[in-house]
Amino acid sequence: MDFLAVQDFYPEDFAWCYGCGRMNSSGHHFRTRWNEEETLTEYQPGPEHMAIPGFVYGGLIASLFDCHSTGSASLAFYRQAGHALGDETPVPRCVTASLKVDYLKPTPLGPTLRVIGRIAEIGRKKVVVVSELWAKDVLCARCEAVLVTAPASMLQNSSPS
Ligand SMILES: CCCCCCCCCCCCCCCC(=O)SCCNC(=O)CCNC(=O)[C@H](O)C(C)(C)COP(=O)(O)OP(=O)(O)OC[C@H]1O[C@@H](n2cnc3c(N)ncnc32)[C@H](O)[C@@H]1OP(=O)(O)O
């Protein structure tokens, strides 16, 4: 891999997410990393991610924001605790409590999409991430997401095996 992404370090049982789980062979495999003080997820949509010819399906954009935001929250909690990716301490896993997406402009199908996130708020178990989605130099969508550390109630179904 050309860089370390937080999803590479999710505990195996919690790495099955359709959007970003490395264990899910059918998923998108979104990967999120720090870019200095911002977080970054890049993704190249394929022709199957079409809304109408030439434009990206909005559900894919929401998925991209979703996993970018959970990944950003994990990165933020991990860094706040003094850790860096590659440490032995497990990376915390977060779930989405709220995801608000504003579609500002039609997103062209073709360019690699760049999602850039800012940690707007970080608490004991909650993170607010504000992100923008860019296609080349066009700002196409914006998102505000609330992420919360994964509840123990999800543990029983964390792995399909
Ligand atoms: C022993 C360890 C076990 C670990 C175990 C690991 C299991 C590892 C599973 C991994 C799994 C990965 C999954 C992939 C990522 C998904 O795709 S997740 C799928 C979509 N998301 C979900 O299914 C989440 C469903 N919702 C829930 O489970 C619960 O509502 C939540 C989100 C955990 C919150 O419940 P809660 O912990 O009781 O939250 P609560 O204490 O009331 O609130 C915490 C904070 O969040 C805020 N908040 C809560 N909900 C909202 C909302 N809707 N809007 C705005 N703010 C909100 C609260 O205001 C509060 O803020 P502060 O007062 O701290 O400022």
From TrEMBL:
Subcellular location: Cell projection, Ruffle membrane; Cytoplasm; Membrane
Coiled-coil residue spans: none
Database matches in Pfam families: 4HBT
Record EC number: 3.1.2.2
InterPro entries: HotDog_dom_sf, THEM4/THEM5_acyl-CoA_thioest, Thioestr_dom
Membrane topology: Peripheral membrane protein
Cross-referenced Gene3D superfamilies: Hotdog Thioesterase (3.10.129.10)
Reaction(s) catalysed by this chain's protein: octanoyl-CoA + H2O = octanoate + CoA + H(+); tetradecanoyl-CoA + H2O = tetradecanoate + CoA + H(+); dodecanoyl-CoA + H2O = dodecanoate + CoA + H(+); (9Z)-octadecenoyl-CoA + H2O = (9Z)-octadecenoate + CoA + H(+)
Annotated ranges, domain Thioesterase: 54-137
Keywords (A to Z) from UniProt: Apoptosis, Cell membrane, Cell projection, Cytoplasm, Fatty acid metabolism, Hydrolase, Lipid metabolism, Membrane, Transit peptide
Chief place of localization: membrane
The protein's enzyme class: hydrolase
Protein family according to the UniProt entry: Belongs to the THEM4/THEM5 thioesterase family.
Protein name: Acyl-coenzyme A thioesterase THEM4
Organism: Sulfobacillus thermotolerans
